[in-house]
């Protein structure tokens, strides 16, 4: 390309608003002029009601994970009835069945050791869902639109929900410590997991009240 032609191209590119740096060739500049930069998509802001609906699902899953842990540490071995237990069972059964089928009934025996793989699975779910719950609550606006008494109530309830989630953190940390293994205290783990489930019930009640407020038009 002749020097004069290069000057003409440079002028045209300058008019188009493209400033060439010493390291950018004319070919690169031409490509950049034709292909626009990818547009950035702004983050989608969820409505408070949408967040509250998601929060209900998060709490449901948290409650299930906690109760699954309770079930795992509450399993009992089954042992056959003995002596007087069998006699009492036979007498009770014969009231409904004159000729009971010969069988050996069983009762709950010693508590079985928790299975680590299922304890770890429940704790993994509890830890992840607790972070998700904190994110849900943190995304709720503390300043509600409209002003007045209703806005003040929304803000107060949202602050209570935030405090409730923060109150979960030490309980979850404590439960993590109790479930490290390789040995477990079944009764202690069950008590801690039930305490968490109880906290979820309180948060669900707060969530429902907030949802009703945001449903008002």
- What number is the mean pLDDT? 76
The helix/strand series, from N terminus to C terminus, equals: HHHEHEHHH
Side by side, the strands of the main sheet go 1-2
Share of helical residues: 55-70%
Sequence stretches where pLDDT stays below 50 over 5 or more residues: 26-31, 33-43
- For CATH, the homologous superfamily of the largest domain is named as Alpha-catenin/vinculin-like
Q: Count up the domains.
A: 3
- By helix and strand content, what is the structural category? mainly alpha
Structure description:
- This protein is mainly α.
- It has three domains: 3-34; 48-75 and 113-215, Up-down Bundle (Four Helix Bundle (Hemerythrin (Met), subunit A)), CATH 1.20.120; 78-111, no CATH class.
- It has seven helices and two strands.
- It has helices at residues 3-15, 26-34, 48-73, 84-94, 116-138, 148-178, 186-215, and strands spanning 76-80, 106-111.
- Strands 1-2 form a two-stranded antiparallel ribbon.
- The longest helix is centred in the C-terminal third of the chain and has 31 residues, at 148-178.
- It is elongated.
- Residues 26-31 and 33-43 have low confidence and may be disordered.
């Amino acid at each position: 390309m002749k020097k004069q032609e290069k000057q003409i191209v440079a002028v045209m590119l300058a008019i188009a608003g493209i400033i060439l740096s010493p390291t950018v060739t004319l070919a690169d500049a031409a490509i950049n002029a034709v292909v626009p930069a990818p547009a950035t998509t702004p983050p989608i802001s969820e409505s408070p009601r949408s967040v509250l609906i998601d929060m209900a699902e998060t709490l449901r899953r948290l409650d299930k994970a906690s109760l699954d842990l309770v079930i795992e540490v509450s399993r009992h071995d089954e042992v056959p009835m003995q002596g007087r237990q069998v006699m009492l069972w036979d007498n009770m059964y014969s009231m409904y069945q004159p000729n009971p089928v010969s069988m050996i009934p069983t009762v709950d025996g010693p508590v079985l050791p928790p299975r680590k793989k299922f304890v770890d699975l429940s704790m993994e779910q509890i830890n992840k869902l607790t972070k998700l719950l904190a994110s849900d609550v943190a995304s709720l606006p503390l300043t509600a639109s409209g002003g007045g008494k209703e806005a003040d109530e929304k803000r107060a309830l949202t602050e209570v929900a935030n405090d409730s989630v923060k109150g979960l953190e030490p309980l979850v940390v404590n439960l993590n410590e109790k479930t490290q293994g390789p040995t477990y205290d079944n009764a202690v783990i069950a008590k801690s997991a039930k305490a968490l489930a109880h906290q979820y019930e309180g948060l669900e009640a707060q969530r429902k009240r907030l949802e009703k407020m945001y449903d008002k038009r």
